[in-house]
């Protein structure tokens, strides 16, 4: 009887042990599968984190290329070095090191927030720079328009000054150029001529300045020689010889002027030219012919 009970009890214990072993084996397999799945998840997390770290490093490069603020560039460079250091740590970390991967994941979250802040700063700077560029463009356009206006005014002024100068210029009219013989009679024969008599009128001009004027008369022979006693005057930045000079008082009204040249040299027949100068301008020209 006791043997039978013992046998039954032993069988029951075996059955229980077998059941426990089966249960434990099942649990171990389940845990192993769970660990393998967790490792796979950690591997995926690690791969995603590596990719994000690399993206961050590239973004810092792009941001530094967009700005010219040395202080901000230095800050971005330091953050980029930090990202690269953490990326190197992540690559060296095994996928089953959950604690280290979680730490680097938290670092990644911090870096994400820092990067976002820098993106906002740079965006703000770019908007400010764009606004400044627009303002600079406006100022440049305004300056160009102002400069163009000044140039136009300067041109108008020059034209006006030129018109005034032309308008105020004296003008010689009513020319008469003849020769007198020794009796004071008109003659066209050069062999009998003793004096040239040059007459003209300074025309009325109310725009010119009144007062004393020096009139210069140049008489050129048919050969181009200037009849002169050696006197010169300034005309267009050069010295010209004159034949006769005369001081007159001009009041703005018509003023008859007569000058004389006593012939002491041997002259030839032909066309003689007379030029009248005043105030640095050639104010009239005439010719006469001697036989």
How would you characterize this protein structure?
- The protein is of the alpha+beta class and 291 residues long.
- The termini are far apart.
- It is built from three helices and eleven strands; from the N terminus they run αααβββββββββββ.
- α1 runs antiparallel to α2 and α2 runs antiparallel to α3.
- The strands form three sheets. Strands 4, 5, 8, 10 and 11 form a five-stranded antiparallel sheet that branches.
- The longest helix is centred in the middle third of the chain and has 71 residues.
- The protein has two domains: 127 residues, no CATH class; 119 residues, Immunoglobulins (Immunoglobulin-like, Sandwich).
Task: Kindly report the average pLDDT value.
Answer: 83
Secondary-structure element string: HHHEEEEEEEEEEE
* Structural class by secondary-structure content: alpha+beta
Instruction: Tell me the strand percentage band.
Output: 25-35%
Biggest sheet features: 5 strands, antiparallel
Oligomer type: single chain
How widely separated are the two ends? Answer: 186 Å
Any chance you could write out the topology, listing elements then pairs?
Blueprint: H1 2-66, H2 70-92, H3 98-168, E1 172-180, E2 186-187, E3 195-202, E4 211-220, E5 226-227, E6 232-235, E7 238-241, E8 244-250, E9 255-262, E10 270-278, E11 281-290
Antiparallel strand pairs: 1-2, 1-3, 3-9, 4-5, 4-8, 4-10, 6-7, 10-11
């Amino acid at each position: 009887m006791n043997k039978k009970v013992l046998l039954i009890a032993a069988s029951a214990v075996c059955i229980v042990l077998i059941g426990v072993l089966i249960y434990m084996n099942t649990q171990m397999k389940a845990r192993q599968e769970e660990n393998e799945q967790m490792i796979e998840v950690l591997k995926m997390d690690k791969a995603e984190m590596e990719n994000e770290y690399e993206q961050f490093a590239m973004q810092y490069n792009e941001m530094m290329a967009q700005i010219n603020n040395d202080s901000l560039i230095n800050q971005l460079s330091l953050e980029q070095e930090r990202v690269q250091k953490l990326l190197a740590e992540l690559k060296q970390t095994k996928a089953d090191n959950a604690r280290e991967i979680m730490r680097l994941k938290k670092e990644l979250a911090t870096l994400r927030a820092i990067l976002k802040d820098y993106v906002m700063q740079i965006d703000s700077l770019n908007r400010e720079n764009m606004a400044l560029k627009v303002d600079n463009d406006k100022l440049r356009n305004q300056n160009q328009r102002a400069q163009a206006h000044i140039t136009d005014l300067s041109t108008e002024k020059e034209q006006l000054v030129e018109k005034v100068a032309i308008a105020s210029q004296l003008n010689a009219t009513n020319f008469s150029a003849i020769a007198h013989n020794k009796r004071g009679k008109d003659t066209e024969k050069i062999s009998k001529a003793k004096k040239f008599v040059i007459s003209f009128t300074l025309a009325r001009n109310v725009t010119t300045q009144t007062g004393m004027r020096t009139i210069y008369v140049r008489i050129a022979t048919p050969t181009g020689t200037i009849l002169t006693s050696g006197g010169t005057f300034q005309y267009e930045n050069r010295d010209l010889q004159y034949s006769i000079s005369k001081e007159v008082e001009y009041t703005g009204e018509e003023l008859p002027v007569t000058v004389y040249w006593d012939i002491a040299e041997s002259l030839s027949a032909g066309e003689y030219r007379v030029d009248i100068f005043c105030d640095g301008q050639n104010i009239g020209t005439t010719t006469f012919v001697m036989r």
